Structure prediction request, 200 residues.
Amino acid sequence: MFSDKNLQDAFALHANVMNVKEGDVIMLPGQYIKIIPIVEKGCIRVLRQNKQGEETFLYHIMPGETCALSLTCCSMQKPSEIKAIAEEDTTLWAIPIQQLEIWQQFKEWREFVGLTYQTRFDRLLKTVDAIAFEKMDEQLWRYLLARANAKESDTLNISHEEIANELNMQREAATRLIKKLKDLGYLETGRNEIRLLRKD
Prediction:
């Protein structure tokens, strides 16, 4: 993913391959980050969790990407403020945090870090806009689309309770909104399964 030969050599020397299974929790709030993850294949779902355990979905980390919040915590030596879960079976490169500062000598690495921050900022703005300005059914639909697109599948094996937790709403509200989208022809439901019928 990098063209700089020196950076390639450093990457080959220090980056370790990690394999995580779908649903595995990779990071929890309060934990200190010891590696910088760059996704090779699969994807990671990132959530914000408060002290009461309530969660809000933020964004996905896709192949070729890393987590801007992890970079920030590493550079400031702060504990994680996010929860990260493997959306599907995922392979990632684990880079020791000591390399974050050392690799700043490489222009291509600095550009990669800068692009990561910009991309995450743009996605977080969209999340804030959704929370502030969209109706609850629109937020739910955006969330389902994001997860379906991340998995490249129209079918999600997901419960109403999981949806409610990650959108910080009551389970009954999630069930009601899912039924509304179903009645509108946006999706079909089964036991712990939702199949999207539209992609807009």
About this structure: Strands lie at 16-20, 25-27, 35-41, 44-49, 55-61, 82-86, 90-96, 155-156, 187-190, 193-196. Helices lie at 5-14, 68-76, 98-102, 107-133, 136-151, 160-166, 171-183. Residues 147 and 156 are 8 Å apart (CA to CA).
